[in-house]
Backbone:
């Protein structure tokens, strides 16, 4: 690693009052030429003030998660090398910068606390399968990144999955990844309920981080979980997932049509044809296709499409369980529906509406959806929602600030 390049020490912290000042002071003493940047992940105590008092620059953020906090704060760091450290770190991590590698991960000489090793072994297996690397400490938060590793890995995967996906991303980019053993310590997690819950969350986040991801409106990289709706609507979910994974920069039906053979064009044709096959009626095909496209247009902020679905689903007896399970993760900006999820929501509502609406009611529903789709093509539905005080307040309900 080129020691002549600027260095930023980046620390993610949440509710670390009483310990963050010691960490910052130690890092400033170890790296006097570097800026210590603390990503305050929505702390509800004096973490931010304490870190600033110890000499760090603090980026105050909504409560989103470790990977999200590091990703947002990294934008405020100067170009160059990064040293990532946990807020409860004790010991000297400077030997990480002595290694001639792009990503250097610290492994602790002595194990302090811990559980049964399930989360660690699961993370090791994910890195081995997806990156071909035998990691000793897949979950270690003490990491040195060269500018090349920084470019390959940021924005990070969300939550506690950020370290696992970081290693995989660096390996897939052909970068040199190494581990080095250091006499470091951090606050141990025991074999109690909070400890097991923490490690369970680590494993879940790691699994989600290793699947398909997309970038949300904040520029955060989140797992796509729309495939969860495949249990109720596999065909439309698969069509939407293909668009998630293969689509280009086109947005809206008009831009896809102008671009020619795109996954969006395929989706615009395939979903109504699927609706026609399922309902055996032209009006049913219109309901399914228009509803799927409308929910796709609507899903530009966390929870927006799910809130409308949960409000309308009981009226037409559409299935609720998948949406209820996914909603907290979508609202909390831990996952994204993607086209797979938003299209599936619309299709589920459309198919259920065919069974409940006949005659005039079905014609009114088709007319309303056609009008909303046209409106979404001409101007942003999100902007219209933001300009309405009532809709804007409802839209923000349950989301991070």
Residues:
């Amino acid at each position: 690693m080129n020691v002549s390049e600027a260095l930023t020490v980046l620390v993610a912290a949440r509710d670390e009052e009483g310990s963050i000042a010691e960490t910052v002071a130690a890092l400033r003493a170890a790296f006097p030429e570097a800026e210590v940047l603390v990503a305050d992940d929505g702390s509800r105590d004096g973490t931010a003030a304490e870190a600033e008092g110890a000499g760090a620059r603090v980026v105050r953020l909504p409560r989103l998660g470790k990977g999200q906090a590091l990703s947002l704060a990294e934008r405020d760091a100067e170009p160059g090398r990064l040293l990532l450290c946990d807020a409860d770190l004790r010991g000297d991590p400077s030997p990480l910068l002595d290694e001639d590698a792009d990503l250097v991960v610290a492994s602790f000489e002595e194990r302090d606390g811990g559980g049964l090793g399930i989360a660690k072994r699961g993370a090791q297996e994910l890195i081995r399968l997806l990156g071909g690397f035998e990691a000793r400490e897949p979950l270690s938060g003490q990491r040195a990144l060269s500018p090349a590793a920084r470019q390959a890995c940021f924005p990070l995967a969300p939550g506690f999955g950020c370290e696992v996906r970081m290693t995989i991303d660096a390996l897939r980019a052909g970068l040199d990844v190494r581990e080095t053993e250091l006499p470091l310590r951090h606050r141990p997690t025991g074999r109690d309920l909070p400890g097991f819950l923490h490690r369970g969350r680590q494993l879940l986040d790691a699994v989600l981080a290793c699947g398909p991801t997309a970038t949300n409106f904040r520029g955060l990289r989140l797992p796509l979980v729309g495939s969860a709706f495949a249990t109720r609507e596999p065909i439309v979910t698969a069509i939407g997932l293909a668009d998630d994974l293969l689509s280009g920069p086109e947005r809206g039906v008009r831009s896809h049509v102008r671009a020619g053979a795109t996954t969006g064009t395929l989706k615009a044709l395939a979903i109504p044809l699927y609706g026609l096959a399922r309902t055996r009626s032209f009006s049913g095909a219109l309901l399914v296709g228009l509803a799927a496209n409308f929910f796709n247009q609507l899903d530009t902020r966390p929870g927006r499409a799910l809130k409308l679905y949960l409000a309308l689903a009981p009226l037409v007896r559409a299935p609720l369980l998948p949406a209820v399970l996914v909603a907290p993760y979508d609202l909390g900006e831990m996952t994204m529906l993607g086209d797979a999820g938003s299209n599936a929501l619309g299709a589920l509502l459309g198919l259920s509406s065919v069974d409940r609406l006949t005659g005039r009611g079905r014609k009114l529903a088709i007319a309303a959806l056609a009008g909303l789709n046209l409106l979404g093509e001409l101007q942003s539905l999100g902007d219209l929602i933001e300009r309405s005080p009532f809709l804007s307040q409802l839209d923000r309900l349950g989301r991070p600030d």
Notes: The chain has two domains: 7-213, 224-396. The chain is about 50% helix and 10% strand. The chain has a mean pLDDT of 90.
